[in-house]
Amino acid sequence: MSGRSRIASLALLAAVALPLVVGCQFLVFKVCVKNDTDFYLDEFATKSAGAPTYPDGVIKDVAPGGSDSAGGYSAGSYDMRAKFDVSDSSVCEDTVELLEVEIENTNVCVTYEVQAIGKINGCTNEIYATVDYVL
């Protein structure tokens, strides 16, 4: 193979491979929220991990047993906060925060449920979250 042929082959390879590598930065993902609690999810907000404050929620008013989703997320690390309308004194906290959730190459689904924890400071249940990566 001559020098020109090698250069032409490498140029062709670069022309095909470079857009694939660079293009991955422009993928957009969704975050879905499933509310498997007995309480209304008032607001679900996200921010870049470590940012000082949360903006207004991207998802609001999810009924018990309901779900919703928001799109437009690029690959990166995010903090996520859910605020619930808890009218039950047995539940310890009305806000659940997940820190540094990585979105790399799939969509993310966050499911909120109530779990019994024994008696701690007068409450016996807490809302917890599980994160699943879905296609």
Do you know the CATH topology?
Answer: Immunoglobulin-like
- Count of DSSP H/I helices: 1
* Relative helix content: 10-25%
What number is the mean pLDDT? 85
Structural write-up:
The protein has 135 residues and is α+β, with helices and mostly antiparallel strands. The chain has one domain (27-134): Immunoglobulin-like. The protein contains one helix and eight strands, in the order αββββββββ. Strands 4-1-7-8 form a four-stranded mixed beta sheet, with no helix packed on it. It has a four-stranded antiparallel beta sheet with strand order 3-2-5-6, with no helix packed on it. Strand 7 and strand 8 form a beta hairpin. The longest helix has 21 residues, at 3-23. The chain is elongated. Residues 18-23 have low confidence and may be disordered.
Lay out the secondary structure.
Blueprint: H1 3-23, E1 29-36, E2 40-48, E3 59-62, E4 67-73, E5 76-85, E6 95-103, E7 107-120, E8 123-134
Parallel strand pairs: 1-7
Antiparallel strand pairs: 1-4, 2-3, 2-5, 5-6, 7-8
What's this entry about, in short?
Helices cover 16% and strands 54% of the residues.
Kindly list the characteristics that best describe this protein.
135 residues; alpha+beta; Immunoglobulin-like; four-stranded mixed beta sheet; four-stranded antiparallel beta sheet; 8 strands
